[in-house]
Structure prediction request, 194 residues.
Amino acid sequence: MQNRILVLGSTSPYRRELLQRLGLTFETAAPKVDETRHPGEDANALVRRLSEAKARAVGETWPDALVIGSDQVAVLDGEILGKPGNRERAIAQLSAASGKRVRFLTGLCLLDSATGEAEVDVVPFDVVFRQLKPAHIETYVDREQPYNCAGSFKSEGLGIALFEALEGADPNALIGLPLIRLCRLLERHGLPVL
Prediction:
């Protein structure tokens, strides 16, 4: 029986859909956070900081809740890939990723807004891309229009055709919310999924 309010600090439909899989009742709230990378901040530190900042921003309006914050970046050749925003940048990102390994880092924070206690973790997941022909990249981008997705693909859709291999402990992390780790955090805070 769920007696704590659970709040997902995200407007992402992908994260909302993932959390719904757990069968828990939850609210959603948009975190108002400046997501600008700090000078010298590496990808791991960035997603860790933003995940906690999102949870704390939402926690201010939910004073007695368990608040989930999450953030994700893709890293290719040591550089952070952002969301492409348009067709040209999506094609450029996928062209650069062709035949390479891209590491996705998904930050996860569970904040108890009543106590201010936050647990933060970063879950890695690697995607190994096939050698992609320009025509295949353009066809994929035109069909899925992944302009709001880090790395320019949707692994839960046609993006799966771009890959040679997927490597990691939790495939949900690739979509944006590491459910395996989240289940353990929720249980520790008195909200078991089972």
Q: What stands out?
A: The CA atoms of residues 56 and 116 lie 8 Å apart. The mean pLDDT is 94. The two ends are 10 Å apart (CA to CA). DSSP finds six helices and seven strands in the chain.
